[in-house]
Specification:
Elements (H helix, E strand, L loop, with lengths): L3 H15 L3 H12 L6 H12 L20 H13 L5 H8 L3 H12 L23
Helix pairs in contact: 1-3, 5-6
Length: 135
């Protein structure tokens, strides 16, 4: 199923092929999609691209290095370490695994549903569960 954004791009392409003007296209998209409508600038950019002959509705590849830290291997490595010793800090996990601290935090949050540990909580805890011994 297409995302709402991709669906709108396909519609813009269709309207360009029908020969509609930008103003008409934007008004129709705004009426149909309401708050989920692409911004006026985005609609104009895609309208212009399709008018110039572009056929693809996908984004162009972006320059820069892709993320290589959040691989399945690193997620598994982090998971094993946490299962062995759940008191490990993000800094310690980053040093052991050789992964950036922010990537370790994202892995813990997204893959293991964990929050970062605070000064009063000596380990990671599941979201929504309070430490009874701190009361």
């Amino acid at each position: 199923m297409l995302s709402v954004q991709m669906e709108q791009r396909v519609n813009i392409k269709f309207f360009v092929k029908l020969g509609k003007t930008f103003t008409v296209v934007y008004a129709i998209l705004k009426e149909v999609y309401g708050n989920e409508c692409l911004s006026r600038t985005q609609v104009f950019e895609w309208f212009k691209r399709f008018k110039e002959g572009r056929e693809m509705t996908e984004d162009d590849p972006r320059p820069g290095r892709p993320s290589t830290s959040k691989t399945d291997e690193n997620v598994e490595k982090t998971g094993k370490l946490i299962r062995k010793d759940r008191r490990l800090s993000i800094r310690a996990l980053a040093e052991i695994t050789g992964i950036d601290k922010e990537c370790v935090r994202q892995i813990l949050h997204e893959s293991f549903n964990r929050q970062k540990n605070g000064a009063k909580t000596p380990h990671f805890q599941a979201k929504g569960i309070k430490n009874e011994h701190l009361r």
